[in-house]
Amino acid sequence: MEIRAEVGAGDPRGDADAILARLDRIPVWTLPRSYLAIIGVGYFFTFFDIADIGYAMPAIATEFALSGSEALFVALALGLVGYVAGSIVIGAIADRVGRYRTLIVTLTLTALGSFLDATATGIVSLSLWRFVTGFGVGADLNLVSTYIGELAPAGKRGRISNLTFLVGILGQALTPFIALALVPNYPWGWRALFVIGGLIATIGVLARFHLPESPRWLALHGRLAEADAVVRRMEQGAAARGIALPPPQPTAVSTERHAFPFRALLRPPYGARLALLAAMWFCWYIGNYGFLGDAATLIAAQGFAVGSSLLFLGVGALGYPLGALLMALVADRIERRMLIFASTVVWLVGMLLIGLNSNEAVLILGSFVASLALGLYLQVAYTYTAELFPTRARSSGFALSDGIGHTGGALGALALPGLIGATSFFTGFLGIGLTGLLAGLIALAGPRTSGRRLEEVSS
User: Fold this and answer.
1) Which CATH number is 54's domain given?
2) Spatial distance between the Cα atoms of 113 and 131, rounded to a whole number of angstroms
3) What pLDDT digit, counting tens, does each position of 242-295 carry?
4) Is residue 370, in this structure, part of any structural domain at all?
5) How many domains does the chain have?
6) Which domain holds residue 415?
7) Which of 6, 176, 332, 353 is the most exposed place for a label (fewest CB within 10 A)?
């Protein structure tokens, strides 16, 4: 059923056009900078959680008497299944009920899931709680990129998204050090790791109550007075900073929306974009989750102690924030699809270095280069994904692209140990390096987005 926004006797599309024209003329972020930090805290937990299971798994496998890649895969992959389900289900809900309310729900779910992870008594309960955690994490990752993209100015969208991501990626950079202090030294260390994640997520939930709703979503859904209030606040922020705003230049903005947001993705050009992005993320996540989920265990299997393998990855993880910072400097200066491709080249180099397994220094260097690539790639690719879909189905489009792509993550978590067992350590890491490079090549086929209004890109 098609629905159109209506307000009073006026033309709702014209009103929406005017509000979005006013929004798009604001050249910088004029809402409180604390909002970016609040979003960053939630992001911090997301990446803390993505990393902590990989660092906890060696100790979990010992305590629960797990053996072989299949048992480890169950514990890891069910979190990914939850991730995909949460992203798709809550992504569709966010297109119907709004970004703000669902951002509260998603982080609440992740906090609950992380606390429950710490109570696991075996493979069944661990898998169940990892599903719950993944359900919230997948949806939250989707919504953060959608939300920031809809508030940020076109010319600064990449930079602002990456600066927010920089706060979040610190979670992935700090996780190995926290894990190193806890997991090898205490039998309950892995449980404490999950409790810490739950506490971080709880702080993020409480802080998010201060955030505004996306004015783009509000305008689309006919809540024009609320959209006007948010944009007016942003205009006042610009005036307070001495920024003279140019006259708004309204352009036609579709107010069409559907009871079932996925319907919009069946129309050109969105179907082709969905296929391209799903393929890109599928190839990327094969190596991403193979590395994050299995690397600590696989390196330990090469004869290094668990603590040593965590240390190698922990020192290397300093590359995460550096990559995010570097990308923030160039995200709006170079076309995003080119930046995605360049990041995957760096990834391949990191995988080759790890695969050499020649000595401790090379392992650390390889881990650093791989982490640098992750910091470079992730947010620019998230931003690019959200940009390619219309507001009426932006969260749903991101969810399907990223959700389908995550099946590659499950494949990578399962296949990497098996590939190494059947061939060699080097061949395994070469394989996930090449799948990452393939993701970059696929991205080159996408449309140009840098510096363009969302409605222009997604029309």
Assistant:
1) 1.20.1250.20
2) 8
3) 999 999 887 766 656 555 677 788 888 999 999 999 999 999 999 988 887 667
4) yes
5) 1
6) 32-211+258-457
7) 6
